[in-house]
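Entry 14. Two folds queued back to back today. First construct below, sequence then structure tokens.
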Amino acid sequence: MQPMTPEDVQAVLDRHQFNVQITFFDTTTATSQQAADNIGCDVAQIVKSICFIAGEQPVIVLTSGAQRVDDRKIAALFGIGRKQVRAAKPEECVDVFGYAPGSVPPFPHRTPGIIVYIDQTLQNYPMLYAAGGAHNAIFPVTLAQLVAVTNGMITDVIKDATVPSA
């Protein structure tokens, strides 16, 4: 199955009249740090789209580039055991979500009805930057726009910071 493209993402941006164009870089933006370096922003402003399978349900967690997702919290949201939540395999990223790992945008996705959870720490930034459907594509987006397009639920999905012992 062929991956979806940045043109699919741009079509949604245009349909919602965000007046935003995807920016393409000469270097990769596949990791949060690479994206932040290319854009010149704080890594926490990067929206990572992390793909999971919870039981049989595909789930995307939109989290800050400075955070890590806690699979226990995803399991709790579904009322299932932690071992029933796993990261999507690379081929599932393409077949189910529509994009290769490192290029998954917050929208659109191949499979309808994917549940979207949004990391509450993204509320700390007026402007965010998300993958545009390719390893070198990024677009600016606000949290309100993310919520409007994805119908995502803002919640606590991140690992708590560990306090080093003295």
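Second construct, same run, same settings:
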Amino acid sequence: MSNGFEQQGLIEPVARLMEEFNRLPGIGPKTASRLVFFLLRAPDEQAHALAEALASLKDNVRFCSRCFNITVSDPCMICSNPARDQARICVVEEPLDVLAIERTSAWRGVYHVLHGRIAPLEGMNREDIRFDELVDRVRTEQVDEVLLATNPNLEGEATSFHLHRALAPLGVKVTRLARGLPTGGDLEWADPSTLGSALEGRREL
């Protein structure tokens, strides 16, 4: 069955790769075409290296059975690190959020990756993310604090609300990331929501 690229008169291998690139988020038909023709002109070693990297990604990367972050070993290197505070869990939406928090070097606990957020309008509900796995983890492990680090938007707030409601009866301390003004920012350019959060989250010096 021919795809849209083949209908443009492209030969099958070229059209097929364009179609696959076009399936990726943020890549439209024009970008897909540029990528394919770049690879056609590139040295064979570069194209083969890309193919090998993609195959290695799918063959070797998995999800940690404890925190559901990406890993090549199970448990992941963060869960298995004795220097990490295993009693403090930071809950994030995606693996990329783990990388962002790790770059700060400010969190020494472990993580739990939801792989999504509660967004009923998009068909994402509690059972579609790693929600119940977190609740089970808090029930079975010695957990002192769960830090909810979901995104500060409507879906992230809804997810945080439902998580808090499920975790609070278990007797665990549930916290939320503080929100406020960015370092180096000016008050006059702050939106009302951000400035309001900064005022509510003020602390004594």
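Quick look at the second one. The chain has a mean pLDDT of 91. The beta strands are 62-63, 70-71, 85-92, 109-113, 145-148, 173-176.
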